[in-house]
From TrEMBL:
This is Nucleotide exchange factor Fes1 domain-containing protein. PANTHER family: HSP70-BINDING PROTEIN 1, PROTEIN FOLDING REGULATOR. One of its GO terms (molecular function) is adenyl-nucleotide exchange factor activity. GO terms for cellular component: endoplasmic reticulum. Residues 4-89 form the Nucleotide exchange factor Fes1 domain. It holds the Pfam family Fes1. Keywords: Repeat.
Protein backbone atom coordinates (compact mmCIF):
# COMPACT_ATOMS: atom_id res chain seq x y z
CA UNK A 1 0.00 0.00 0.00
CA UNK A 2 1.17 3.53 -0.75
CA UNK A 3 1.15 5.05 2.72
CA UNK A 4 2.47 8.37 1.41
CA UNK A 5 -0.95 9.37 0.07
CA UNK A 6 -2.59 8.63 3.39
CA UNK A 7 0.18 10.44 5.24
CA UNK A 8 -0.42 13.51 3.10
CA UNK A 9 -4.14 13.32 3.88
CA UNK A 10 -3.44 13.02 7.59
CA UNK A 11 -0.94 15.88 7.59
CA UNK A 12 -3.29 18.11 5.60
CA UNK A 13 -6.49 17.54 7.54
CA UNK A 14 -5.28 17.19 11.13
CA UNK A 15 -3.85 19.83 13.39
CA UNK A 16 -0.27 18.96 14.19
CA UNK A 17 0.32 22.02 16.33
CA UNK A 18 -0.92 20.42 19.53
CA UNK A 19 -0.90 16.94 21.07
CA UNK A 20 -3.92 14.67 20.91
CA UNK A 21 -6.73 15.69 23.24
CA UNK A 22 -7.00 12.07 24.32
CA UNK A 23 -4.54 9.94 26.24
CA UNK A 24 -4.07 6.17 26.18
CA UNK A 25 -6.99 4.33 27.75
CA UNK A 26 -7.07 4.38 31.55
CA UNK A 27 -8.51 1.72 33.87
CA UNK A 28 -11.71 3.69 34.47
CA UNK A 29 -12.43 3.81 30.74
CA UNK A 30 -11.72 0.10 30.42
CA UNK A 31 -14.22 -0.62 33.20
CA UNK A 32 -16.84 1.60 31.56
CA UNK A 33 -16.41 -0.28 28.31
CA UNK A 34 -16.91 -3.59 30.10
CA UNK A 35 -20.06 -2.30 31.82
CA UNK A 36 -21.47 -0.87 28.60
CA UNK A 37 -21.03 -4.17 26.81
CA UNK A 38 -22.87 -5.83 29.72
CA UNK A 39 -25.77 -3.35 29.31
CA UNK A 40 -25.02 -1.75 32.69
CA UNK A 41 -24.74 1.61 30.91
CA UNK A 42 -27.84 2.32 28.83
CA UNK A 43 -27.68 6.05 28.09
CA UNK A 44 -27.15 6.44 24.35
CA UNK A 45 -25.42 9.80 24.59
CA UNK A 46 -22.94 8.49 27.14
CA UNK A 47 -22.28 5.41 25.04
CA UNK A 48 -21.62 7.57 22.00
CA UNK A 49 -19.43 10.06 23.88
CA UNK A 50 -17.24 7.52 25.62
CA UNK A 51 -17.20 5.12 22.69
CA UNK A 52 -15.90 7.85 20.39
CA UNK A 53 -13.37 8.87 23.06
CA UNK A 54 -11.96 5.33 23.08
CA UNK A 55 -11.76 5.29 19.30
CA UNK A 56 -9.96 8.64 19.32
CA UNK A 57 -7.26 7.66 21.78
CA UNK A 58 -3.62 7.29 20.85
CA UNK A 59 -2.92 3.88 19.31
CA UNK A 60 -0.06 1.84 20.71
CA UNK A 61 -0.47 -1.24 18.52
CA UNK A 62 -1.40 -3.76 21.21
CA UNK A 63 -3.91 -6.60 20.61
CA UNK A 64 -5.77 -5.57 23.79
CA UNK A 65 -6.18 -2.03 22.52
CA UNK A 66 -7.45 -3.26 19.15
CA UNK A 67 -10.07 -5.42 20.87
CA UNK A 68 -11.20 -2.53 23.07
CA UNK A 69 -11.57 -0.24 20.08
CA UNK A 70 -13.55 -2.89 18.23
CA UNK A 71 -15.94 -3.13 21.18
CA UNK A 72 -16.25 0.65 21.40
CA UNK A 73 -17.04 0.85 17.68
CA UNK A 74 -19.67 -1.87 18.09
CA UNK A 75 -21.40 0.18 20.80
CA UNK A 76 -21.33 3.37 18.73
CA UNK A 77 -22.71 1.51 15.72
CA UNK A 78 -25.68 0.28 17.75
CA UNK A 79 -26.75 3.77 18.84
CA UNK A 80 -25.91 5.54 15.58
CA UNK A 81 -28.61 3.65 13.69
CA UNK A 82 -30.99 6.23 15.18
CA UNK A 83 -31.17 9.24 12.82
CA UNK A 84 -31.26 11.75 15.68
CA UNK A 85 -28.22 10.19 17.33
CA UNK A 86 -26.28 10.43 14.08
CA UNK A 87 -27.06 14.14 13.93
CA UNK A 88 -26.21 14.56 17.61
CA UNK A 89 -22.82 13.03 16.92
CA UNK A 90 -22.20 15.82 14.42
CA UNK A 91 -23.50 18.57 16.71
CA UNK A 92 -21.26 17.38 19.55
CA UNK A 93 -18.19 17.25 17.31
CA UNK A 94 -17.70 13.49 17.51
CA UNK A 95 -18.09 12.53 13.87
CA UNK A 96 -14.68 13.89 12.87
CA UNK A 97 -13.08 11.29 15.15
CA UNK A 98 -14.99 8.48 13.43
CA UNK A 99 -13.72 9.76 10.07
CA UNK A 100 -10.12 9.96 11.25
CA UNK A 101 -10.31 6.47 12.74
CA UNK A 102 -11.96 5.09 9.59
CA UNK A 103 -9.18 6.48 7.41
CA UNK A 104 -6.14 6.35 9.64
CA UNK A 105 -6.40 3.64 12.31
CA UNK A 106 -3.59 1.10 12.19
CA UNK A 107 -6.12 -1.67 12.91
CA UNK A 108 -7.97 -2.88 9.77
CA UNK A 109 -10.78 -4.35 11.89
CA UNK A 110 -11.34 -0.97 13.57
CA UNK A 111 -11.30 0.82 10.22
CA UNK A 112 -13.95 -1.62 8.98
CA UNK A 113 -16.22 -0.98 11.96
CA UNK A 114 -15.79 2.79 11.72
CA UNK A 115 -16.65 2.51 8.03
CA UNK A 116 -19.88 0.78 9.06
CA UNK A 117 -20.61 3.64 11.47
CA UNK A 118 -19.93 6.17 8.72
CA UNK A 119 -22.19 4.42 6.20
CA UNK A 120 -25.03 4.19 8.69
CA UNK A 121 -24.67 7.83 9.74
CA UNK A 122 -24.50 9.49 6.30
CA UNK A 123 -27.26 7.48 4.60
CA UNK A 124 -29.90 9.98 3.42
CA UNK A 125 -28.79 12.36 6.17
CA UNK A 126 -27.79 15.76 4.72
CA UNK A 127 -26.63 17.18 8.07
CA UNK A 128 -24.16 14.34 8.53
CA UNK A 129 -23.18 14.35 4.85
CA UNK A 130 -22.33 18.06 5.07
CA UNK A 131 -20.18 17.50 8.15
CA UNK A 132 -18.39 14.57 6.52
CA UNK A 133 -17.60 16.75 3.53
CA UNK A 134 -16.33 19.55 5.79
CA UNK A 135 -14.06 17.06 7.58
CA UNK A 136 -12.56 15.98 4.23
CA UNK A 137 -14.00 12.46 4.30
CA UNK A 138 -14.35 12.58 0.51
CA UNK A 139 -10.61 13.06 0.00
CA UNK A 140 -9.76 10.43 2.58
CA UNK A 141 -12.12 7.84 1.11
CA UNK A 142 -10.84 8.38 -2.43
CA UNK A 143 -7.27 7.94 -1.20
CA UNK A 144 -8.16 4.74 0.62
CA UNK A 145 -10.11 3.29 -2.29
CA UNK A 146 -7.17 3.85 -4.63
CA UNK A 147 -4.68 2.23 -2.27
CA UNK A 148 -6.56 -0.41 -0.26
CA UNK A 149 -5.53 -4.04 -0.84
CA UNK A 150 -8.02 -5.64 1.58
CA UNK A 151 -11.01 -6.36 -0.69
CA UNK A 152 -13.61 -6.39 2.07
CA UNK A 153 -12.36 -3.10 3.44
CA UNK A 154 -12.25 -1.60 -0.04
CA UNK A 155 -15.88 -2.64 -0.54
CA UNK A 156 -16.78 -0.86 2.69
CA UNK A 157 -14.95 2.30 1.68
CA UNK A 158 -16.86 2.33 -1.61
CA UNK A 159 -20.11 1.86 0.34
CA UNK A 160 -19.09 4.87 2.46
CA UNK A 161 -18.42 6.90 -0.66
CA UNK A 162 -21.75 5.87 -2.16
CA UNK A 163 -23.62 6.94 0.97
CA UNK A 164 -21.82 10.27 1.03
CA UNK A 165 -22.37 11.35 -2.59
CA UNK A 166 -25.88 9.99 -3.24
CA UNK A 167 -29.18 11.59 -2.30
CA UNK A 168 -30.49 15.13 -1.99
CA UNK A 169 -27.28 16.65 -0.61
CA UNK A 170 -25.81 17.82 -3.90
CA UNK A 171 -22.58 19.44 -2.67
CA UNK A 172 -20.85 16.11 -2.00
CA UNK A 173 -21.90 14.82 -5.42
CA UNK A 174 -20.66 17.98 -7.13
CA UNK A 175 -17.30 17.88 -5.37
CA UNK A 176 -16.91 14.20 -6.24
CA UNK A 177 -17.47 15.00 -9.91
CA UNK A 178 -14.95 17.85 -9.74
CA UNK A 179 -12.41 15.46 -8.21
CA UNK A 180 -12.70 13.25 -11.31
CA UNK A 181 -14.96 10.86 -9.46
CA UNK A 182 -16.38 9.52 -12.71
CA UNK A 183 -12.86 8.37 -13.61
CA UNK A 184 -12.74 6.49 -10.32
CA UNK A 185 -16.12 4.87 -10.96
CA UNK A 186 -15.11 3.80 -14.45
CA UNK A 187 -11.85 2.24 -13.24
CA UNK A 188 -13.71 0.33 -10.54
CA UNK A 189 -16.33 -0.89 -13.02
CA UNK A 190 -13.66 -2.02 -15.48
CA UNK A 191 -11.61 -3.81 -12.84
CA UNK A 192 -14.70 -5.61 -11.55
CA UNK A 193 -12.96 -6.72 -8.37
CA UNK A 194 -16.22 -7.91 -6.83
CA UNK A 195 -19.96 -7.83 -7.61
CA UNK A 196 -20.52 -5.63 -4.57
CA UNK A 197 -18.09 -3.00 -5.86
CA UNK A 198 -19.71 -3.02 -9.29
CA UNK A 199 -23.19 -2.61 -7.80
CA UNK A 200 -22.17 0.27 -5.54
CA UNK A 201 -20.54 2.03 -8.48
CA UNK A 202 -23.63 1.57 -10.63
CA UNK A 203 -25.74 3.08 -7.84
CA UNK A 204 -23.47 6.11 -7.69
CA UNK A 205 -23.38 6.47 -11.46
CA UNK A 206 -27.16 6.25 -11.76
CA UNK A 207 -27.63 8.82 -9.00
CA UNK A 208 -25.10 11.24 -10.52
CA UNK A 209 -26.60 11.08 -13.99
CA UNK A 210 -30.21 11.30 -12.82
CA UNK A 211 -29.72 14.18 -10.38
CA UNK A 212 -27.59 16.26 -12.75
CA UNK A 213 -29.70 15.71 -15.86
CA UNK A 214 -32.92 16.43 -13.95
CA UNK A 215 -31.48 19.89 -13.27
CA UNK A 216 -30.51 20.44 -16.89
CA UNK A 217 -26.81 19.66 -16.37
CA UNK A 218 -25.59 17.38 -19.17
CA UNK A 219 -21.92 17.78 -18.20
CA UNK A 220 -21.51 14.54 -16.24
CA UNK A 221 -23.34 12.53 -18.92
CA UNK A 222 -21.07 13.97 -21.60
CA UNK A 223 -18.06 13.18 -19.43
CA UNK A 224 -19.26 9.58 -19.21
CA UNK A 225 -19.30 9.48 -23.00
CA UNK A 226 -15.79 10.88 -23.22
CA UNK A 227 -14.45 8.43 -20.63
CA UNK A 228 -15.92 5.43 -22.43
CA UNK A 229 -18.21 4.58 -19.54
CA UNK A 230 -21.04 3.62 -21.86
CA UNK A 231 -18.82 1.02 -23.51
CA UNK A 232 -18.20 -0.35 -20.02
CA UNK A 233 -21.95 -0.42 -19.38
CA UNK A 234 -22.60 -2.27 -22.62
CA UNK A 235 -20.04 -4.85 -21.54
CA UNK A 236 -21.79 -5.22 -18.16
CA UNK A 237 -25.06 -6.00 -19.93
CA UNK A 238 -23.60 -9.46 -20.55
CA UNK A 239 -22.73 -10.03 -16.89
CA UNK A 240 -23.92 -13.29 -15.35
CA UNK A 241 -25.19 -11.45 -12.27
CA UNK A 242 -28.81 -10.53 -13.09
CA UNK A 243 -28.87 -7.72 -10.55
CA UNK A 244 -25.84 -6.11 -12.20
CA UNK A 245 -27.60 -6.32 -15.57
CA UNK A 246 -30.77 -4.74 -14.16
CA UNK A 247 -28.81 -1.94 -12.49
CA UNK A 248 -26.90 -1.30 -15.71
CA UNK A 249 -30.18 -1.07 -17.60
CA UNK A 250 -31.38 1.52 -15.10
CA UNK A 251 -28.26 3.64 -15.58
CA UNK A 252 -28.78 3.53 -19.33
CA UNK A 253 -32.45 4.38 -18.86
CA UNK A 254 -31.42 7.51 -16.95
CA UNK A 255 -29.23 8.55 -19.87
CA UNK A 256 -31.87 7.71 -22.50
CA UNK A 257 -29.23 5.63 -24.29
CA UNK A 258 -30.25 2.19 -25.52
CA UNK A 259 -27.93 -0.75 -25.98
Amino acid sequence: MDWQGLLRWSMQYTDGTRPSEFKPMDEETKQWLKDALSSVVVDDNEIMQKGVKILSELETGSPEECEQKEKAAELVLQVIENLDMAQNMVKLGYFKHIIKCMIGSQYPSVRKMCASIFTSAVQNNPIVQANALAEHALEGLCARINEETDLQLKEQYIACLSGLVRGQYSEARNQFIQMKGLDTINLLLVSGESPRIVKKCLLMLSDIIYNTRSKGNEGPTNECLNLGIFETLNYLMNNQDKEIVEMTQWVLHNTEIKC
